[in-house]
Structures are given as structure tokens and as C-alpha cells.
Amino acid sequence: MDHTADNGKAHPFPPDFAWGVATSSHQVEGDNCNNQWAAWEKAGRIKSRDRAALACDWWRNAERDFDLAQSLGVNALRLSLEWSRIEPAEGQWSTEALERYREMLKGLRARGIRPFVTLHHFTNPLWLEARGGFSSPASIPCFERFTRRVVAALGDLCSDWITFNEPNVYAALGYFLGEFPPGKKGRVLESARVTYNLCLSHAVAYRTIHALQAGANVGWAQHFMVFKPRRPQSFIDRSICSIVHTNFNDNFFEGVRDGRAPFPLDVMGATLDSVKDTCDYIGVNYYSRLRVGFAPRSPGTLFLQLSVPPHKPQGDCGIEIPYGEAYPQGLQRAAEHFSTLNKPMYILENGVPDRDDRIRPWLLESVVDEMRQLLAKGIDLRGYFHWTLTDNFEWNEGWHLRFGLIELDPETQERRLRPSAGVYQELIKANRNGASGKD
Ligand code: BGC
Hints:
Elements: E1 18-22, H1 25-28, H2 36-42, H3 58-72, E2 76-80, H4 83-86, H5 95-110, E3 114-120, H6 126-130, H7 139-154, E4 160-165, H8 167-175, H9 188-212, E5 217-229, H10 235-249, H11 253-258, E6 282-294, E7 304-307, E8 325-326, H12 330-338, E9 345-349, H13 360-376, E10 381-386, E11 406-409, E12 414-417, H14 419-431
Parallel strand pairs: 1-2, 1-10, 2-3, 3-4, 4-5, 5-6, 6-9, 9-10
Antiparallel strand pairs: 6-7, 6-8, 11-12
Helix pairs in contact: 3-5, 7-9, 8-9, 13-14
The structure holds beta-D-glucopyranose.
Beta-D-glucopyranose (BGC) binds next to loops.
């Protein structure tokens, strides 16, 4: 990185920069009933008790939102494929589902929008989940087969692929904190096995895609959080903070960068040599900063206390835990951290839960400034995807947390542009095609 550059305020974005929005299948399609998240909802595990139901109704009419995306001037859109629709039972493939995805990708391209396709965004078909999901090594050939099918079916319409969305969140929330299905808590070893199998699945998918498509651009989306000790003078808070940082932010990442197996499998002698360097770019999902402290009386949270000081900018709070401080400067930390991989970088998600659009306009402006600074420092940043276009089903929080540039009434499917939709539109207009954005 060139630290002698100016503070980056006027640095232009590259002409082919991807100005996008990001979504995922279960959160937008509606009527997904064959994956583990639908089962989790049925079992009453969504904290808000909401139902995904029609979500944003994309399975029937994603094109309504594609039109809105086009009107905002975005030139890229990230969506994911719902494995449980494409392979509803093991080895049975739905040509109808693949046809619908073809239609969506064609619809995007016809609107001048470059599709970025995620192969796995948290959801597993029920048949895979019944076999242990990614905690079982049997998931690896299943994922390879799925990848082969979808790339063969859609590869003429898309060449930007994200193998996994946030493998570090998937493992931490599903197997350590118990917030996501399968709801397991404190399973250090199992969580490490999940990460290990995800790394191997990613690597076979990377090779499969490249074997089928010469010019493919393949990576994954890594979630990064900025952690700060709650009491910086406390040795124990500082130590916990550093453990949480390494175990969360480097989880999976070290597999690809160094071929290193996750703790404790590494000390047990496992390696991930075949995973090293299996990416063409690094995708960064960055949202917030959290204070981490030791909570001796809180075994339920594994003795961790996560908090946000009240005077810090925050979007809306989660039902049980704070979502985090909106801290756009953290993007510098994320980018520096991941630049050790020496690959092009995309911000594949960034946003804030903010139903009343109190701080989203500020966040958007600030993040664009932060990205200019990164470009000025020499970071090879190629795109930014705001999470999200239209309010969608926020996993455990249901409809409680709203991330959309566009407000949605899930009952009536009515949409209303929030002021930040206009802010993003202006930012794109000012910075697209190499404009400096500051005149
Ligand atoms: C996930 C999205 C989610 C977003 C907002 C990310 O961690 O990839 O699916 O909706 O954060 O919480």
C-alpha cells in the first residue's frame, strides 16, 4: 500500500468499478420451504416470530426489483442460487428452477446489470442438512456436483462467482453461538470441522468453475467485524478481544491464504494445502464494530459481552443483541487485513439496519469516502455492493431489521424508496465511469 498518497478525497473510482446491491435467495425469493431455514422457522426459532412467506416475491417477480435497481443506476447485482430448488432431492435436478435463474440473469444483463452469483448463502437443502450439512465430509462431493450443474447451466450468462457467503458466520453462528441452524453452542471442534469442509468445498468449486469457464472470476465473501476491548485497560478484555478477532475474522481466510486448517484441527496435524490460493479475488462483507468484554456470570453467551457505547452511531438494535456500531472507518481495517492475500478486492456487502433511514445516507457517503482513500492507497478495489436493495427477510430477526434502500411492506408487496436510494443513485452518478465525484 502506498501510504504517501493524499488522503484520497478526490481519488477517482476505476471506470469499470461495480456499483451494486446484494441479496440472497432465501431472503428475497419467497416460498422456500425445502431448506433448513424454513425448518428453523417452522420450529418457531425465528426470534421475531415473523414468517419469510413471500419475502420480496422474487421467485415470481424479481424483475420488479431489477427495474428499480436499474433506475438507481447500479451496474451490478449480487444474488444467490437456492440449492434446495435446484436439487430438491439428492441427485434430482429441477430444470424449471435452473430456467428461472436463467431468466433472472438474462433480465439483469438486458438492464445493463452485471450479475454476481453466490452458490451458497447460508441455506442447505433439507436432504443435505439431514446428512449433517457441512459438518460431514460427504458435503464436499455434493457441493462439487451442484457447482458443476449450475455453472454448466448458467455459465454463458455469468462469470463472477462467489462460492460461499460468510463461511465464518455460518460456522460461528450455527455451531458456536447457536443463533443459526443447527443451533449448536460452544462446539469448538465441530465448528472447526465445518470450516475445514467448507474450505475444501470452496477449493473444489473454484477448480470446477475454472475447468468449465476459462475467464471466470471466483472468490468468496468473508465477513469482517472490528472488535474493540470494552475496557481497554483490562488485560482480560484485551485478550478476549484478540481471540475473538482471530477466531472470527481469520476463520476460513487463513485456509485460503496459508493453507492452514482451523484451530484446533491445525494443532492436531491437519492442513489445507489444496485450498491455498484458490481465489481470484477476496470479497469483504463489512458492517460494524463491537465492544467485547468478559462476562463472568454469563455462561449463556459463552462469557462474552458484546456491546455498543450509547453515544456511537447505530442503526436499529437486534431483538436480543446489538447489531453493532455503524463505523465506516472500519473498512480501512478490513481492507488492510485482507490485502495480505494480494488479490483484487470487492466489498460484497455493507449496510445498516435502519427502518427510518436516520443514518443510512451518512453511512453511504462515508463509505464512498473510505473507498476513495483505499484506492488512493493502492488497494485494488473493484466493486461495492450495498446490502440491500429492498427490505428482505433478515434470518433470525425476520422483518425486524430493515436494510433496504427501498422499504417493503411484505403483506402488500408495496415498495417505497427511502431517501438513501436517492443518495446512492447520486453517488453512483457522480463516481461512475471514472468521474471524480467531487465536482
Ligand atoms: C449476511 C446477509 C445479512 C446481512 C445483514 C450478512 O452477514 O450475508 O445475509 O442479511 O449480513 O445482517
